[in-house]
């Protein structure tokens, strides 16, 4: 039986160059939230999302200096633990910078995509899914602990759907969720740009150059774009 740890980070931005300023997790009845001074200034566009400012963290220690790191590292890296996050690859990169590398993880974003093969859902970000699925919970959006509470409820919905559609027991469902999360999602439709709404398999026939250009942008950018890189290479046959 795995120990499930729902977690979220708030950061200085959404690229590989960014750093942790808040982490929250929930496991069983234990809740934890920690706030820290990151290794770089928090830009206003990040503060506009999570409302953590440089003034708020100015007198705080960094995560490494806070004393919380050993406890969280031990918990997250335990072989019996499974950490769960929405868009987990990003959060895992952020905590890897703090020397935390969990053995097993589940990504609810990849699961939501997997369970929607016809792409009927317009968007897959956590707050959109919260209201689409009518997850009624008292949680502040874009605060780390608030997002963790929503994440836990989303996970329960996804797990039930896996159990029902695959005819699995609970432990088998967790194993399946880990397996699905372990590799990038194959996307099928553009939901941005000049080909918004079009199937990627059609665009590659009519505008292959656009896919080549987009792949180059993703490979050379500093965003966390595993799913798009995997998808573009798939359709381009690379």
UniProtKB/TrEMBL annotation:
Signal peptide stretch: none
Keywords noted in UniProt: Exonuclease, Hydrolase, Nuclease
GO molecular function: 3'-5' exonuclease activity; nucleic acid binding
Pfam families in alphabetical order: ExoX-like_C, RNase_T
SMART domains: EXOIII
InterPro entries: ExoX-like_C (IPR046768), Ribonucl_H (IPR013520), RNaseH-like_sf (IPR012337), RNaseH_sf (IPR036397)
Ranges for domain Exonuclease: 3-164
Protein name: Exonuclease domain-containing protein
Species this protein is from: Candidatus Nomurabacteria bacterium RIFCSPLOWO2_01_FULL_41_12
Organism classification: Bacteria, Candidatus Nomuraibacteriota
